[in-house]
# Entry
Amino acid sequence: MMSLSFNIRDLNMLKSMFRLALIDRFVGSGLGLIWAILSPLMLMGIFTFVFTFVFPNRMPGQGGPLHFTIWLLSGYGPWLAINEGIAAATTSVTGNAGIVKNIAFKSEILPVVGAMLGTLPLLVSFMLIVPLQFIAGHPPGAGYLFLPVVILLHLIFISGIGLFLAALNVFIRDTALALPNVLTLLLFASPIFYPLNVYPAFIRPLLQFNPFYVVTACYRAAILENSLPPMWMVGYLVAVSALMFLAGLWWFRRLKPYFDTRL
Amino acid sequence: MTEARIEVRNLSKVFALSESGGRAASLLEALRTGQPGVNRREVRALQDVSFDIKHGERVGIIGANGAGKTTLLSILAGLTDATGGTMKVEGDIHAMLTIGDVLREDLTGRENIYLDASVHGRGREDIDAAVEEVIAFTELGEFIERPVLTYSSGMKARLAFAMGAFIDADVLILDETLSVGDFFFEKKAAARMRRIAEHGSIVIMVSHGLASIAELCTRCLWMEDGRLVMDGDPETVIKAYERRVQEADEANLIKKFGAADKREKRIGAASLKDVSLLQDGTSRHGSVMAMQPLTITINGTVGHSAGPCDLVLNVLRVDGRKIWQQCGSANGLRLPEQGVFRVEIQMDPFLLGASLYRLDVAVHDSEGMCDTASRVFEVVDEVGQYGGQPQLFYPPVISVRPCMEPGS
# Structure
């Protein structure tokens, strides 16, 4: 079994690098941190409008546009977190070449920091969902207590993907360029904007094992239904995240010795 | 504080190159390494380097570009792994290989100090304790509260240096960082370096400024082609290194003049052993100073020559123009009929203008040329002239005063 060999120093480094990433991302632009709130807000607004008024068919969450909006945001918010996390992780090593080459630390930390950046849009979506839930008369319940577990599994899963893509991007810079397209494709291939039951019956058993769907389904269960997600989902997510993370870490460490010739 | 110590044994570093072309290894090649039967092209940046560094030593590393200095520092700093050999380091390491990696233009100087220290693994309390001292050292005054993008490059360098130099590491690794900032700050930085080293920790620095190595270091390593050539006190090592550089320069200069005299030599009749150039009591290679007396010393042997031998001296400029030609006999020089000879020629005043020259010395007997020897040198004018580049610095009066000592 591969040893993960991280220690308390790496944890501190994780914090420092997260701070640095936040600074790089938002300080210096005119509106600064406002963009962190504004851009997910706009995206969520657009999709809510489109799926509430333009294609208002087959919406789950009976009870009108408000309920549908809450349903949509509870899945789209986590997706934005996934999207942002993967994108940030992929460029984390190439974008921080100076630091990687000049400060002795475990560069495995960088993709993890990237995945963590995704929590910002997630936070923004909760800032919308919670008030809306109060307005709709269904205030947040005990299901929220399970959210930290879901967020942790989500971060481990995305870190794994990020580790893989970040190392790949050092060798093949096209990775970061191709990524937005792949992510859009993935978004529409996952039952996030529409419930699983709108898909043809024969493909549903397969689709429900899509890990991106499982992540959003876990969020939705905790937010909307005030209940634990189905146990198989939690178990499946634990397995997939752990596997993805270990595989990503192995891949990253395998390629790491060659970084200095490519950065 | 622990006793800092570094022990390096047979350290090697190989950079993998792509199998075809000169690029770095590709993804597939990187993934396949370690499998049998994979041929790799590689660059050996470091070969079999061993040394120990004890507590309190300030070690300078010198060498030409590409000698492996920076690679060695990166390995010592833990940035890259060696591909062979072992390295043992006791103590905290802090490396300043390039400055300002963490410097963020939009933050103020003070914020940057906190950020940099946290990235280098310092706690908030540690930074609070040191921050005022760092700020005082940077001499930035009110600028410390302004965004770094308003700084001049010198101010940035000062901030970056101060941030690095106030991290209390047992082992401090520096690459060329002293050559930043203005003259006064450089002095201050040098003083700071000395204080760090005197505190008992280890300082390792790479610099092309030999003077700063001589001034700051207690020990000097000379690297060439990834190997350790010499290890000793700075004065000795730097002297040897400078000599090597001059010799390499002269070899390059000779190439510029193209092929030497191809005429057949009759060494049996008479031969030249060496021609040396002396200025200020030191032997010069590659370059000589303008307007300082130059002594040319010629050693040779007369064998079974046909008739009396004579020396012919020629000074040729790089563009092919013959500047000066003289025969020894015309100046009353008589070589011995047989045996070794040593001729000294004083050029005083030395008046060749700043350019590249070749000095050809030939020994003739009555049947013609017996042997030749050449030296190429560049005349360096450190003072500089107004109104163009004169060929000669004084009216062309050259007095050759040959003197002869039988035997030597």
Summary: The interface with chain A takes residues 15-16, 24-27, 30-31, 74, 77-81, 93, 95, 97-98, 101-102, 104-107, 115, 118-121, 123 of chain B (CB under 8 Å).
